[in-house]
Amino acid sequence: MTAPIAGRVDRMLVTEGNLVSGGGAGAATLLTTIVSVDPMYVYFDIDEGTYLNHIGNARPDASRPENSALLVQVGLGKDNNFPFQGTLDFVGNQVDRGTGTVRARAVMPNPDGYLTPGMFARARLATGTERQTILIDDQAVGSDQDRNYVLVVDAESTAQYRPIQLGPIRDGLRVVEGGLNEGEQIVLKGLVRPGMPITPNVVPMQQSTGAADSSDAAADTEHSDSPAADTRPGEEESRS
User: Ranges for the Multidrug resistance protein MdtA-like C-terminal permuted SH3 domain (predicted)?
Assistant: First the structure.
């Protein structure tokens, strides 16, 4: 007997020596079940508002190049992030009147069989277009009445007030929509006021504490009236 699909077989429901029958679906004896595990399909629902706002990007298009398929990120119940990646397979052709959602499906590679049919999963679909943006540590952002700002370190190691426009948080970093340029250093922490000279201690982008003193910072250490402040350059990344 040959299985009609490749996949994982469940337990045997009939052992050797038992009487079985063939024929139609109602009369045939079930021997076992088999499920396909690679690739794995993930079904999820898109609310109507999201569907309307992003239908041009979310629906697969026959004219879209194959290598630009929309990315779907998936996380399981125990995951705090979305470690699995696949592509959007289809979007349904109607809205469910009871739930106000549209059914969609992603196809996920599963070569090691870790994903199992029936698992609960969370899906995240990137419906925007990729663009370059500035990312900063959110703790560097201050609020002044109705605006947000950062303190930018200028060429004279002076903290300058800079209003900025904020976007969402992505992977623990804050998106800056405007007001800051790539490579500018901002004050991350320290008792600093606008216009105050400081002794910057440059902190790598991927670290929240600890720092390596830059050559410029070392040259400024002789100014006793300059408070120390950790600074961090803005990082530019491609985001959706």
Answer: 133-191
